[in-house]
Structure formats: structure tokens, C-alpha cells
Amino acid sequence: MRSFLCRVPLTNCCSLFVFFACAEILAPGPAFAWDDQAPRERTKESPQDVVRAANNGDARAQYMLGQAYAGGEGAQQDLAEAVRWYSKAADQGYAVAQVALGAAYELGHGVPKDFAESVRWYRKAADQGDADAQFAFGEAYDLGEGAPKDYAEASRWYRKAAEQGNPMAQTYLGLAFEFGKGVPQDFAEAVRWYREAADKPNLIGDTTAQSHLGGLYHQGKGVPQDFTEAARWFRIAAERGNAGAQYRLGLLYELGEGVPQDYVQAHRWVNLAASRVSGDEHKEYVDMRDYIAGKMSAEQLAEAQRLAREWSTGNTK
Fold this sequence. Notes:
This protein is mainly alpha-helical and 317 residues long. It is built from 15 helices and no strands.
């Protein structure tokens, strides 16, 4: 469901023990901000110094050692050992370790899966103002995992994290306002939070936010209707692999809304979207792809398929 990347700046660590590099732990997911509890001037410590500090009770070093075992960088991966070191740091109130420990319990990595224990640690970090923990704590209420399902409480914690710039929380808060989950439905507020998540200077925006922002421009909800702007946002998310955005962009090409009517591009994007989904959604996308194909010549269809293969080759995620 989520992963937590090392949030300690370690650009000066070196040697064979590069396990203190920012290794991804647990599973693919969003990258989070650097740990503001770790002063940059401490990054010149040697790995041996970090191990010594961890054994002497330094919470930051204990967290770093947990990251090393979690990522298997410079040491054999051992998720149980990672949890042991996270626990030492978390027990001292080190927020990023509390978040990592919460994620471990949520996913069952190194410990039995335990949503209640996961939420307990997320809450401790959330109460310290950690935006990642606030988002995760809100999601627990949203999903009813480790906490009672409560959309209003979920939205309250999403807002806390969103106001600190957490892009996932901004997206989820946008969804709450768009669909009226836990907050009164308010398309203008949905647009506001989607835009915050979608348009990040120096960062890659959230594709769900980009796609939904395109949808609101297309419908004229919360913003004046603007097919060109809708197409722009769908394209940004589509190029990054968002299947919903690919499908919607294909429909715009099929209808000529915000873009010139172009069945080759329409088929290309709907075909790509169909290859990335399953179930009822897959059937819907395939039906639309075949409908568009019925309007095309053999040459156009071959070109659309070539363009789709070309995109897939360059985006092998």
C-alpha cells in the first residue's frame, strides 16, 4: 500500500556500507520528505559511527540501521531486525521511526500484520506533526483498517497533512471534496487541493490529482468548462501511465474536444488504458477501443498500434 523512503540526508556516507543510502523499503509507493529531525551536518558520520551510536541509544542512528536492514543495502535484508531497530528509535519518540514501524505492522513486514498496532504508531507520529503519519492515520479511518471507518475523521487528518504539503493527502482531500466523503461536496475545494497535488514545482505531481483535475475542467465543476485545459491535464497524467487519464484523453481525441479529432491518437490512448486495467473497467475500455477501430482504416489502425507499442516500450513500469 505504501512505502517510506529513508528521510535522513546521507549524501556524505560512503564505503562498502552504503546501506545507509536512501533505500526503498517495503513496497513501491510515494517518496516522502527528508527527516527534519536529522541535522545535515551529521551526515559525515562513518557507518561504523552510526552503528556505534545506535548501540549507544541514539534514536536517529537506530532508525538508520533499521533502514539498512529493511533495504538490504550493505547487509543481508532482515525485516525483523529492521523492525527491532525501528522499535528502539520509535520508543524514544523518533517520529520517522514511528512511521516506519507503523508501515511494517500495516504490511506485515518483519512482524505479523496488525492494523491496530500500525495505527497506534502512526498516531504517535501524527501527534508530533509528521505529515506522512497524518496521511496514513487518515487513511486508516478512510479504509476502516485499525480504526473505525469514519470519513469525517479521515478528512480531518488528510487536511492536517495536506496543509503541510503532503501530495497524497492533498489528492485524498480533493477526492473527499469532489465526492462529499466526510466533508460537504465542494468542487472548488476539490480543484484547489487537486491543483496543489498536481502542480508541484521541482517535483512530479500526483497523477490521480492530475486526472481528476482534468475531469473537473471537462465537466466545468469548480472551474469554468475548458476542454483544452482538461486535455492538458489528462495528457500529463496519461504520459505517466495513469490508465483513467489515458482513457479520457482517448475519448477527447475521438470526439475532438480540446484536441483535433484524431482516431489514431484516440485508439492509441484507449488501447494503452485497456492494457493497464482489469475486470469491468477492462471490458469498458476494450469495447471503446473496438468502437474506435471500426472508424479507422487498416493503415490508421496499424499506426495507432505502433504508437501504443512505442509508448509501452519507453514506459516499462
